[in-house]
Model the fold of this input.
Amino acid sequence: MNDQKVPESNKSDGGWYLADLIVEMTVGDQPLRAVHVNSVLVRAQNADEAYKLSIALGRDVDDEDVNPAGEVVTTRFVGLKELSYIDTVLEHGTEICYRETFHPVDGDVQFPIRPREELDVFLARDSFIKKPIDYSSDRIVAEALALIAARKRDSGGS
Done:
């Protein structure tokens, strides 16, 4: 954590909260479901308001769509995993959450470290798409492909 003074806007009479929303996606008759924990920032005057706003943000994701294979994709907000008050200045390098585990001192620890090329931000786009179930939106995929084609056309690329 940094040692800067927490601004008045981040104190208990109003500030930032971090909400972990649990969202489930089911696809047609597929035997698997995808479950996401989406961490979102919530601006609220107090914990009760942060809770209500977090629930509203979660409910906003409820949707039914169709994937490129024509299967119905149902996205459903399940509930909150966590709601935490952020009691520090939000800036580059600010720690806003952590996950803690405990291990015997005399045992080996398998730290969950991944090489750079396996971090999500560096994965090839195809790696993101290959999942056990396809919960992508046919409409959004079509729009994205049209934008890519237009960019290539406008830049003279192939």
Remarks:
- The chain has one domain: 8-97+114-155.
